[in-house]
Amino acid sequence: MRLIKTAGSVVAALAMLGGLVAPASARTLEVEWRTDADLKAFGQYLEVDEGTGDAFALLMYADGKEVLRRLDAATGEVEWAVPVPWMTALVSDPTTGQVVLSGRRESRQVVMYVSGDGRVVREVVTDVPAVPVAMAVDETTGQVCSLGSKRKAGQSLITWYTSCWTSAGDAVFSDAEVVGDGRSFPSALGVDPRTHRVYAAGTSRARKFNDGRVGLVVLRSFSASGALKWQARKKVPTPDGALEIAIDSKRRLVHVVDQPGLIQSPVSLVTFDRRGKSRPVRRFQDLGSVHDLEIALTTRGRVLIGDADVTRASVRVYSARGRLLRKAVVRTERNPRRAYHSQVAIDPVRERVHLLGGGGDTPSRVHTYDVHGKRLSRVVVDDRHVIEGELVVHGPTGRVFVSTSQFQEDGQRVTALRE
């Protein structure tokens, strides 16, 4: 399973916490603590509280038994655990210290607010019939938004649902729109903490272009109150990709990177300005196939992209204008038949890329590289038969949280790595 991440700006969050941190000299990451739970689950989704540095782990099940746990940043001690049935996405709100979760129950989206001390303070049952695919929070106002999709029975057209609520759980707006004239896939959401614009992104097949074989990256821009400002489209080589989004508040740019949905297809980087006008698409294919991909903005406004398959990874850095500054391809595992999973997380403050690889019969390791492709460390986080993993970075400290899971076995682990 893949964590549905917030697309909020780490740089903006650090500014709120008292200033930006310049890239530090590299030191080896080491295991700080491990927390094991004798629980059966399909996996754990991770989120981090940028203020306290604590980690939130959402234990995933298939029958409404989901549980949210809070782990102390310094020790890994479980501070509390609370049932959050049917929740599948989460985001941490830095303005209130709350965790906001979303899921689908009885054909309706439900939004749940959990306080910093583990109390469910509000549960909102909405009229939105969509399954949430992404969440984001405005780091200055606490407004939380979700992006979901719903296909009508017997039809190929998909309705995108973009919905927002205040930090208290009051509805702000909900927009429902069939995007494109072919099959479409919303997958990324972001909120600009400076302008409070809400950006929903996805891909669409365009029937009027080459019988639907051409893909389009679609970006929709809403005001904080839900007025649609514009909708932009840009051709990309492959349809049905999963998108990641990074918002440059200072330059009023939105960078969207497309993880291709087809094997051995190029990755596309598309940049839109504040009016929806796009720059030329940057395409690259450093790997045969991409299993996971991340994008982030460094404190200098550069675009940092990391993508990986089960044995290799690529690191690319672009200027804000789209000029390629550097690239590197690195090897993480030697035997593709023995490696199982691959996940990417970016530390934009220190300009590092962390990759979780291995799994199955191979120990799960976190590989860390700088923007030049130099390996900084390689740490074993789990030597059991792991089938699922995830990792997130705490911006102010650089601490890396890693979850590893054994499928339907009593083996849920969270590991913290730090210099």
UniProtKB/TrEMBL annotation:
<dbReference type="InterPro" id="IPR011044">
    <property type="entry name" value="Quino_amine_DH_bsu"/>
</dbReference>
<keyword id="KW-0732">Signal</keyword>
<dbReference type="InterPro" id="IPR015943">
    <property type="entry name" value="WD40/YVTN_repeat-like_dom_sf"/>
</dbReference>
<protein>
    <recommendedName>
        <fullName>PQQ-like domain-containing protein</fullName>
    </recommendedName>
</protein>
<feature type="signal peptide">
    <location>
        <begin position="1"/>
        <end position="26"/>
    </location>
</feature>
